[in-house]
């Protein structure tokens, strides 16, 4: 297909956009050509797609291959923003990254720029360079150094937190805020007496803490009116440190430390805790206080606990568990009942030797054999 586009050019011409151009144009800032290719540009130009392109005029130094600015004309107020040199309003000096470092009077560095101080912090009273050192009356320093208005009327206040430290007449200090005593709902509803500024007494059941009436521990019988520490406790509770704690509900009596000394019926004092008798000794039939005195049949008392007796005993000592009679097919060996030869019809009670056999078996020595 015929298009009329150039595909190559004679000496002295350059192929550019499918046409042959004199080397002076379109690359008139090329200093050195190799055949039809520019290899070196004049000063303050760099090669971009084979064409010499001007470097940003405010660059002091730049990358010869990409044209990216490396340093800027800071005296002229330019800073490096990415790969370009950009004018920084009101900057006197800048950092190596191009951010404002110092500003003229009336301006402060804010997010790398010089901004009018009244715009940044309008309620600042005095400045030291770009730092606010004091706020106007009725303002305090916020977390970012900006002056913030007080939340309430204060007599005096903390300039760093804004919390009131005293109040004018007719107000009461509560949690760092001055509240009017003429409010329908006072800020400290359980205070029984204000001295004009501070609460000095609370209603019963409350105590003073930092000027506020706080509920006392509900289990205290008596308590310190200033700190709220329990001094004595009612029956069923014990004092531990500054608090009253509920005692074991199964405890009948306890000492002043809250240690249980006796339990209600059906419970046994196990250490310092009342435990159900059936939990500790489920096979006890008779209790005298906290002591088991008799076990259900099939058990005997061992160290106060009911222990299973030998299951083959027909009779045994209730205190030791020693067998003194055995069921048929078993014989007494010491204090135990042991199984006899199953083919024996009768056995010697102390040895277990066969003395007669069932039909079909023959007595052979001490055993019955088929």
Architecture overview:
- Strands 1-2 form a two-stranded antiparallel sheet.
- It has 370 residues and is mostly beta strands.
- The longest helix is centred in the first third of the chain and has 4 residues, at 117-120.
- It is elongated.
- The chain starts with 12 loop residues before the first strand and ends with a strand.
- The protein has 2 helices and 46 strands.
Topology:
Elements: E1 13-16, E2 19-22, E3 30-34, E4 37-41, E5 45-48, E6 51-54, E7 59-62, E8 69-72, E9 78-81, E10 84-87, E11 93-94, E12 100-102, E13 107-110, E14 113-116, H1 117-120, E15 124-128, E16 131-135, E17 139-141, E18 147-149, E19 156-157, E20 164-166, E21 171-174, E22 177-180, E23 191-194, E24 199-202, E25 206-209, E26 212-215, E27 222-223, E28 230-232, E29 237-240, E30 243-246, E31 251-254, E32 260-263, E33 267-270, E34 273-276, H2 277-280, E35 284-288, E36 291-295, E37 299-302, E38 305-308, E39 313-316, E40 323-326, E41 330-333, E42 336-339, E43 344-347, E44 354-357, E45 362-364, E46 367-369
Antiparallel strand pairs: 1-2, 3-4, 5-6, 7-8, 9-10, 11-12, 13-14, 15-16, 17-18, 19-20, 21-22, 23-24, 25-26, 27-28, 29-30, 31-32, 33-34, 35-36, 37-38, 39-40, 41-42, 43-44, 45-46
């Amino acid at each position: 297909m015929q298009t009329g586009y150039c595909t190559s050019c004679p000496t002295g011409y350059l192929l550019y956009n499918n046409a042959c151009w004199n080397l002076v144009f379109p690359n008139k800032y090329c200093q050195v050509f190799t055949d039809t290719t520019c290899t070196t540009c004049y000063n303050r130009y760099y090669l971009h797609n084979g064409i010499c392109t001007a470097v940003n005029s405010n660059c002091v130094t730049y990358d010869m291959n990409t044209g990216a600015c490396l340093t800027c004309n800071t005296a002229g107020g330019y800073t490096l923003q990415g790969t370009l040199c950009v004018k920084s309003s009101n900057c006197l000096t800048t950092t190596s990254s191009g951010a404002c470092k110092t500003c003229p009077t009336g301006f402060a560095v804010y997010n790398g720029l010089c901004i009018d101080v009244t715009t940044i912090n309008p309620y600042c009273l005095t400045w030291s360079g770009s730092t606010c050192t004091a706020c106007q009356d009725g303002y305090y320093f916020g977390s970012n150094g900006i002056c913030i208005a007080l939340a309430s009327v204060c007599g005096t206040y903390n300039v760093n937190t804004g919390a009131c430290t005293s109040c004018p007449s007719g107000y009461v200090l509560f949690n760092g805020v001055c509240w009017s005593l003429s409010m329908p709902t006072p800020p400290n509803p359980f205070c029984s007496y204000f001295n004009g500024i501070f609460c000095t007494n609370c209603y019963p059941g409350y105590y003073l803490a930092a000027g506020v009436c706080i509920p006392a521990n509900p289990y205290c019988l008596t308590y310190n009116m200033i700190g709220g520490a329990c001094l004595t406790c009612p029956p069923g509770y014990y004092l531990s440190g500054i608090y009253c704690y509920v005692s074991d509900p199964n405890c009948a009596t306890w000492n002043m430390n809250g240690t249980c000394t006796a339990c209600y019926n059906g419970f046994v004092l196990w250490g310092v805790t009342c435990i159900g008798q059936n939990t500790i000794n489920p096979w006890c039939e008779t209790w005298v206080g906290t002591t088991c005195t008799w076990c259900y049949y099939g058990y005997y008392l061992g160290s106060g606990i009911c222990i299973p007796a030998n299951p083959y005993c027909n009779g045994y000592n209730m205190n030791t568990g020693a067998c003194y009679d055995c069921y048929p097919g078993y014989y007494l060996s010491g204090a135990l009942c042991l199984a006899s030869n199953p083919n024996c019809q009768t056995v010697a009670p102390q040895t277990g030797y066969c003395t007669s056999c069932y039909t079909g078996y023959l007595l052979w020595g001490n055993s019955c054999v088929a």
